Description:
By secondary structure, the chain is an alpha+beta fold. 53% of the residues lie in helices and 14% in strands. The chain folds into three domains: 5-182, Formiminotransferase-cyclodeaminase, Chain B, domain 1 (2-Layer Sandwich); 187-348, Alpha-Beta Plaits (2-Layer Sandwich), CATH 3.30.70.670; 359-567, Four Helix Bundle (Hemerythrin (Met), subunit A).
Amino acid sequence: MQKRIIECVPNFSEGRNAETIKQITDAIESIRGVKLLDVDPGEATNRTVVTFVGEPEAVMDAAVASIKRATELIDMRLHKGAHPRMGACDVCPLIPVSGITMEECTELARTLAKRVADELNVPTYCYEAAAFTPERRNLAVCREGEYEALPEKMAAKERQPDFGARPYDEGIARTGATAVGARDFLIAVNYNLNTTSTRRANAIAFDVREKGRPKREGNPIVGKIVKDENGEPVMIPGTLKDCKAIGWYIQEYGIAQVSMNMTNLSVTPLHVAFDEVCRAAEARGVRVTGTEIVGLVPKKALVDAGRYFLHKQHRSTGVPERELVRIAIETMGLSNLKEFKPEEKIVEYILEAEEQKRANKLVDMTCTAFAEETASESPAPGGGSISAYMGALGAALGAMVANLSSHKAGWDERWEFFSEWAEKGMNIMNELLALVDEDTAAFNKIMAVFSMPKNTPEEKAERAQAMQTATLYATQVPLRTMQTAYKVFDIVKAMAMEGNPNSVSDAGVGALAARSAVMGACLNVKINAAGLKDRETADRLINEAEKIQQLAQKSEQEILAIVESKIN
């Protein structure tokens, strides 16, 4: 299952006192499971933009902790700065990064807004996707009049905050109000051009940006701008929705660029914008020579781009994630000006690196280390993890045969058929790899129960219940391994029948690995289910496992018969 990750970008009304800023960011870093990515103070604005990411619950806790510290340290009665503001924490948007929808982020933002009001006594407005009314989607509406307008806003019912409404008091005078919202991930990207002309770059930018360019009478360059009945310029829309762009010249690089902010990747993905800027540039005799991503990027943007570019080449897209990222980097020229390092630029990779520092995952070990760890005196990893890994290898073999078949000379018209099978194989492989560590985690949950106290009747009852909960989980995990590994048979059977005949033995080995995964996990289901006091649940789990095992044995025999016939 894909990890749920959100980004939080609170803006605090302090940009000059380094010690205050440090205490606020320390509050964020005190919450386990979040990663502080950036701290950007501004002296003139007297404002600091902080960026951190993590799983939703941890991010919510970190946001509350940082706002709490900010309200303790920042007195809005004394605040002066160039940027609009209405509170110690002025705005706090949540942004979906991976494994979570905008709708879910909206609910989280509203929950966060209520927590800030209830726990910290700070009035909160909900804006953008989290807004309760259409007009409050616009942050400027929520912040109208800024901090100085709060006394009258708290008194006017239609202007009161969504949470924490009350008569203006000394507490509000000190903390101000906060706007909490949900918005899409914003990517700042520059397209490098083989020209030094800002005019050419601007022309390309106006061709593609959503706002477009002003309509002119006669000559489209120097003609008089056409205006509507309100005296506003009539615009000719550009080709890319949710994109803002301008052209500029960069002295450091000696080239012009189209500089773009992409505000909704689900509407206009990165690869679509790249292709469109290339098209618009070529139409004006200019060429895009590379791309520069400013700041961080969610993994999905590059994975989708790699898949898109491979698809254009009629190549299989069922390849490892890192390969898709590499294809995206090469195709869009992300290392044209300076090396693009995925581990430093992709949000999820940054978090994964943090996790690896804290935990030794089995799937991160070398083959030798994994084997040696299994052979050690420790009872975990055991048969459950090994079963999941065998299933992952079976899926990997199926994907391999599909990829080899998609690239086989003379089979060009079938590349998409095999690409789809390869993608299925990769998805199943990744599910099973996650189960390698989850099986060991399930065992550790059982072991943790033994350290619980059992001195009083209440403690004994709590311990017994915890053991049953852990045992049920330890039974369900290998059952999931069985269910997932069984899906491998569809892939290896299709590859045995339709795939590259030179690789048919690999499909056969994939079937053997899948069968072993199913049967091995079945043994774990049975031995763990024996510890369940709820016999009805235990019998149901065992019956389901035995049915999958029978189907797996039958599927294995069918596939091996196909393999033998092809070999002979």
